[in-house]
Design a protein that fits this description.
Length: 185
């Protein structure tokens, strides 16, 4: 298997499927609630066709200059519904940005937490990622609670290695080296 042909990841109640163009129709519904975008840039996709186009780009798995790896998984819950996605952008220095988005009907159940707990060790081991970063609107209390529960620690915005931080955004970082356990799969 090549480095970008990620497997599906299984957790106790979830399946994380590597993002494919075929997810666009289902995810158009999932991403349609305006409240998802209260504290993150953008808004609901304008159409399933527009989302297909975006997913065709993301599913290539890397930027056109080959410097960034783009890892995206759709979160599928037991009922078969797509709850949202987790995403990591990996930079040449083997650090990454980490992000997650769920439809509001799946908030407050630990679904995002379970999905992130499945994705992070895989990202660390499979791609040799040593640290993950997240920049968060200070009003995004749910996201900050989730990052904290996952073990992310707040750092000074000047320590963010992947570009400019939006004014007022808080920056969180997780060291992934504990996942490099000897003989771990
Ligand atoms: C950020 C986001 C993913 C957080 O979702 P979430 O459901 O709050 O996150 P978690 O999966 O950690 O769930 C935590 C909640 O589930 C509850 N829960 C239930 N069972 C749980 C379990 N087994 N484990 C953990 N939490 C559990 C917790 O008590 C908590 O409940 P509360 O909200 O009443 O305090 C979601 O708000 C979202 O998609 N927002 C829009 C997009 C966004 O802002 N993304 C972040 C960009 S930085």
């Amino acid at each position: 298997m090549g480095p970008l042909e990620s497997p599906s990841l299984e957790s106790h109640t979830l399946r994380l499927e590597p993002l494919a163009v075929a997810h666009a129709e289902e995810m158009f519904e999932t991403l349609s609630a305006q409240s998802i975008y209260d504290y993150i840039p953008g808004g609901p996709p304008s159409s399933a066709a527009a989302l297909r186009e975006r997913y065709a780009m993301l599913a290539r798995g890397r930027s056109s200059d080959d410097r960034q790896l783009w890892l995206n998984w759709i979160i599928r819950v037991r009922s078969g519904q797509c709850a949202g996605f987790v995403q990591a952008t990996i930079y040449p220095g083997r650090t990454g940005d980490f992000a997650f988005v769920l439809a509001p009907e799946f908030w407050g159940q630990g679904v995002a937490f379970e999905a992130c707990q499945a994705a992070i060790p895989h990202i660390a081991r499979q791609f040799g990622v040593t640290g993950l970063f997240a920049t968060v609107d200070p009003k995004n209390v749910r996201s900050i609670r989730l990052l904290t529960r996952l073990g992310f620690l707040e750092i000074a915005p000047s320590g963010y290695p992947h570009g400019e931080v939006e004014p007022d955004d808080r920056v969180f970082s997780l060291s992934c080296t504990p996942y490099f356990v000897p003989n771990a799969g």
